[in-house]
User: What shape does this take?
Amino acid sequence: MVKRRTESGGLCPPPLPRLPKGGSYEILRLSKSEAECSTARDRNTNRSSNRVMRIVDRRQFFRDSAAIAASMAALRGTRHSARADDTPDDRKASANDTVRLAVIGVRGRGMEHVLGFAGLKDVRITTICDVDENVVGLASRGIALKYGAVPKYVQDLRRVFDDKDIDAVSIATPNHWHALATIWACQAGKDVYVEKPISHNVSEGRRVVEAATKYGRIVQAGTQCRSHKGIQDAIAFLRSGKLGQVYMAKGLCYKPRGSIGFKPDTAVPSGLDYNLWVGPAEIKPFNANRLHYNWHWFWNTGNGDLGNQGIHQMDLARWGLGKSGLPKTVQSSGGRFGYKDQAETPNTQSVAFEFDDCLLQFEVRGLLTNDEEKVRIGAIFYGTEGILAISSYTEWQTYLGPKLEPGPGGNGGGNHFANFIQAVKSRDAMSLNGPIEDGHISSAYCHLGNIAYRLRRKLHVDLARESFLNDAEADAMLTREYRAPFVVPSKV
Ligand SMILES: NC(=O)c1ccc[n+]([C@@H]2O[C@H](COP(=O)([O-])OP(=O)(O)OC[C@H]3O[C@@H](n4cnc5c(N)ncnc54)[C@H](O)[C@@H]3O)[C@@H](O)[C@H]2O)c1
Assistant: This one.
């Protein structure tokens, strides 16, 4: 099928998917350039005289694009001059004050990247990239609302890296793509915001750090709690010594998840480049249960909830303990309990990491459970003088003395996207709140926990080599067989 292009050379976004019955919809007027892309094959398009209108799911649209809607009034005055069809001189000027960004993977978290970056005055999202053209409509429309022109759409991320008009990329693909996409981006001279976990295995995570250093790029790990004032204050309290000697931290990921059931293998849906979606992973027959979002629950592409929700809380626990490297040992047990389904990763998992002077425990509970110190998703620090509980992405509270009476606490957010853009503009990697080295180490804790879970035994870590001591079987699980040409190089 011949793909249509906008005047500025971008691919037209694909048609919207069929609307579910019973939703609350409203008609949205399209921008001229988006209207230009509308064809008779758009199932949800009404034509009235020369005006093209498209029906969108009202609740979904306003939920997902609240930030864009709020800034629409202001944006007429602030619309930036940088356009996808800039002249070379314009591009040179715009590169100094506007970061030209591509968002890679625009379905779930990627849509939050779109909203977050579109809300920053010194960013222009010029390009969106997704291997599944069926999912790009919302991102394309939101960006069109913001800038008055649809962004360029490309299906193959390598074309993003080829594009000299792109300064930075944000990556919200599934986990198995994070490392290779980041390395390719660094090699192409792009700065990178990469979602957590920054890797799918330990070895490729270290390659990401090496690539950021070698190519002098600004690379932010997507552990956004690190930009939140409440969390920064909690860590400062731990560092102040007021909790005494912290002898244990516990990370909690108590997030009920339902069964994903069973689905049969089928033909690949039209509009999806399945070869590219699989990329570095092992290719298997197409199955809808292994595709969007549910890929988290298969080892080939995901890292279970430990490496999904849990990486945020693992990062907090490790950060709070002040451990910059790997633990001495790791052990883990658990299972997928409560129902039978197609997924592989545990919904119930406990992991224990040992250090010389403290322990880090982590628990994933994907079924019904109580909370602990009002925490379900967070981290609790146990010191000789009291307890500190981080109970959300922004809140903390202490309980001090033998009676554990409430002490200092607080709440406060921040903007991790803005922190990245400031660092891109200042070229100061030290100003990043989510340095890629920290992203790598915290991701590695999750991978170590999963390796110990899968091998069902205690593992001893070789700290200097980021591998295991005298354990070839465990060492083999620190990397993977890559599927050419999607190979993470051993030397970047
Ligand atoms: N920081 C956070 O709070 C947070 C929240 C949610 C998700 N995440 C992370 O964001 C990432 C995406 O999660 P999600 O829930 O949006 O997953 P998702 O499966 O819903 O979306 C991923 C999108 O990436 C696309 N994609 C896959 N391979 C691609 C490629 N090679 N090039 C371009 N596009 C590609 C898919 O087609 C899909 O549209 C995950 O790594 C997840 O851990 C972070």
User: Anything to note?
Assistant: The longest strand covers residues 246-254. The first helix runs from residue 32 to 37.
